[in-house]
Specification:
By secondary structure, the protein is α+β, with helices and mostly antiparallel strands. 43% of the residues lie in helices and 27% in strands.
Length: 146
Amino acid sequence: MRSLALWLSIGLCTPGCSAERKALKAEAKAEEALATAASAYWYAVRWNYWDVGASYYDDTEERLAWLTEQGTAPTYRYTDATLMRVEVEDPLEEANADGIWRRGRVFVQAQGYPLATQVVEKKVLNQKWFSKDEDADVWFIDSSED
C-alpha cells in the first residue's frame, strides 16, 4: 500500500515538478553563460585585448567610446579580476522595448591601479549585464544608469 501511495505521489508531482526543474535548469544555464561572458570580458580587460572586451558592449556607440578610451587615454590598469558572484533575474514574459529578456549582475573583485598614481588598490565591482537572447546564451554589459 505504501509503494502505491509513493507511485501516485510521483505521478501527481511530475507536471509541476518538471516545470520547476526546467526553470531551475534554465536559471543555472543562464548563470553559467553569464559567468562565462564575464570571465572572458575581464580576461580581455586584464590582458589589454580591447577588441574582445568591446564585443561585450551591445550598442555600437558605447563600444566605440570604450575602445577609444582604452586605446587613446586609458586611466586605469587592471592587474587581476576574480568573479565572486553571478546573479540572474527571472526572465521577462516578453522582451522589453530594448529587446532585453533577462538581466543579471556580476560581482568582481578587481585589483589594479590608476595610471596617474600607480598605487595598487583592490575593490569589489557590481557590474550589470543583460541578455537579448530568450535562452540567455549571449550577455552584454549594461552601462545604463539605474
